[in-house]
Amino acid sequence: MTEIKELKVEDIKKAAEEKKCRVQQGLYYITEFLAGPMCGRCFPCAFGSYEAKLRLLSIADGKGTENDIAALKLIAEEMAEASMCKKGKDTAAFIAALVTDGAFAEHIAGTCASGQCSAFMEYRIVADNCTACGKCKEVCTHNAVFGEKGKPFVQGYPFEIRRKKCTQCGECIAVCPEKAIIFIGKTSEPVHT
Amino acid sequence: MAEMVKFTIDGKEAKAPEGVNLIEAAALNGVHIPNLCFLKGQKGIGACRLCLVEVEGMKAPMIGCTSKIKDGMSIKTNTEKVQEIRKFVIDLILSMHPLDCMTCTKAGVCNLQQYAYDLGIKESSFTRKKFGFSIDEANPFIKRDPDYCVLCGRCVRACKSQGTGVLEFMGRGVGSKVTTANDKPLQDSGCTFCGSCVDVCPVNALLEADRWRKGREWEYKKTDSVCTLCGNGCDITVSTKDGQVMKVNAGASNGSERYICAYGRFGFDCIEADTRVTKPMRRLNGSLKETTWEDALETAAKALKKAGKNAGIIASAGILNEDALTLKEFASAVVKTKNVDTTASLYGNAATLAGSADIKSADLFVVVDLNTDQHTRVLPALDATIRRKVNGGAKLITINANETGLAAVATVALGGNEADALKAIAKALADKGLVKDKKMADAVKGTTVSEAAGKAADLFAEAKNPVIISSPALYAAAANLSLVNGAAISVGIESNAKGVMMMGLVSSGKSYKEMADGATEVLYAIGEVPMTERPKVDFLIVQTSHMTKLAQQADVVFPSAAFLEAEGTIVDYTGNVKYVAEAIEPAGDAKTHRDIITALAKAIMGTSMKAAKESDTKKLAKVKTKVSFGPFTRVEGFDVKVGEMIESVNASVINGSRLLWLKESRVVADNKVAKVA
Questions:
Q1: What is the ipTM of this complex?
Q2: CB contact A157 to B (< 8 Å)
């Protein structure tokens, strides 16, 4: 039994490493770990990994602070020391290796270089390319696209996407004939063509 | 005695017996190693990781509860490294624990509070977690509040080890909770409300239901005493405040076996029950009226004096040794009657209520003709103790014609005639050449040995300290096995059954049964006796703490001290003399049995009579009878229904406390089952 579980930790690790973003790697790993191999037999691992998940969620959500990184470091350190079995210690090592990565500091600063943390990303309409054809507005089921469909011979305004309403479903990108919609980091400069 | 090993702890030289773990070894030397999940008497599980200590020569910290002490170990319990880990764990627990120490009932004895204080953690540095579990307070005994739970699992293990197994974890890790099967309220889960879980909970997750704003631990006065409600005579710690009992816990401070049933833990309400008698009463114009002690004593004295040798005295076997000895003297020297007997004569006599044994060191139990049961509270502590020992590796042989609960966990369970089964085991032992007693060897000749009896004999031969526990009726037959090895004891139904026998409170005239049927002119009944109808006597004196059915029909009622109100000694079922302390003063005008008896003696004779003291009873209670061979037969005439008798001698405790709720809910449950059937 234990062997299968040990393997599972390895599997989760492998699957996690396929993700580009380091924060997403951590989040995926810890979520799967808590759902599967985490046995809950000792406090440091059971409680520590749960706390780690909360911290990783906060970072991935763009709400991360230096405190979160410090907490993750502490969790990794103490879990490695105090966990009962190898699963906990492996998890600790995995987290420890992650947090020292520069990607975490980047997230705290507000960017996700790999573009996998959706909280850091947005759908944006490049005004120069938009013809106000209205196709994006038609497919958007969340009323996130704002603007008036262009009329012949009338100079309209380019469409905009409301961040708060956007669920990042990607439907609008698929229908835009002008390739005017882009998926880009929130903090990046306005795009012109 | 195990061998002692030497070690050093925090730089101090220390000693501990071999085989104990680091937490126990440290505790023996006055050092506390923090822990939340360790449960004394059980294997450590290493869950909370607070007991990590550093041992010289070891790279990583060692876990205190799962590592055994070894000679020459050098332990450091407070290094920076282990403190860091403890801080981490406590910090995490605090992040999901309600921080309301200011109103928390457990403040002062909460382990979590103590450790947070020791480590200087004001509040958690981790994310606040709240789960909003529902509170189970649908019963009047135990309140379960999972929000406080630290998931140490002590309650789960305590419940499992004693064989009730009601509590279990649901889920794992953060967000899991301890609950019953299908998350049902306790009363629907097979819970016996013994409260063992309450005793082991380190925080406020499991608590007596009535404790809210009834004082906290530091306000309580603690008294080590003994519960005298049934034949088990369990050690208890009574907490009182302003002369009121606030709670009762299992086990005394000397670290005795920790189990008490719902009667012992929650029966104390009866002290203040409406049915309590606090003033002497006398029948005037057909109805009982309150009166003065002088008047009541005078009236009773007149009747007893007039009856003389035709007077009868019956007492419950739950009275203390000192009361029993005083009563014996009173009967022979003051009333001058031979008719004095106790309820113990219903199920035993001086020869069959005997034996002493050390249950703690037993590695094999032979339980004969006893149907112990925690659910119906028939000798529940014995049941729990045996189950715990069996879970800890001890072997169990049950011998009972009827099916018993214990048989399910027995290594060998023998059915059929108990005396024959004992004989067959003896024969198998004789075949092994272990029977040295000639009479016994002769008696078993020609007996056929069944396969099960052979197995039982094998177990018995292997055991180092077998303890044979039997009903009084089969004591003589069962004790024969102790001639081979070990010790034998019989178990009475009332707490001091052995004591009253040792004090010699045995009738040489009319027996209890005869007197209860009205064989004497005047009857003086002491304590709660299992009688509901007034026998045909000219005059009835009842000395009791509560208005029992018998007392309602009496001519004179003397108010006596209730459970927890009197001091003295008893001889428990293991043959040990136990000191029963007075936790609170008798209510109202109530007096102890012996005080009333001596006052009555003065009213009869005009001169005073001394009450027996502990020193008088000590000698009598210490006498150990040597076991000699007895016939392999059941002694007839001792057939009482144990469960019914325990209930009837505790009727006023049950009916005068929240235990009534338990009784009634059981009736409701039984009716439901009956309807379905």
A1: 0.88
A2: no
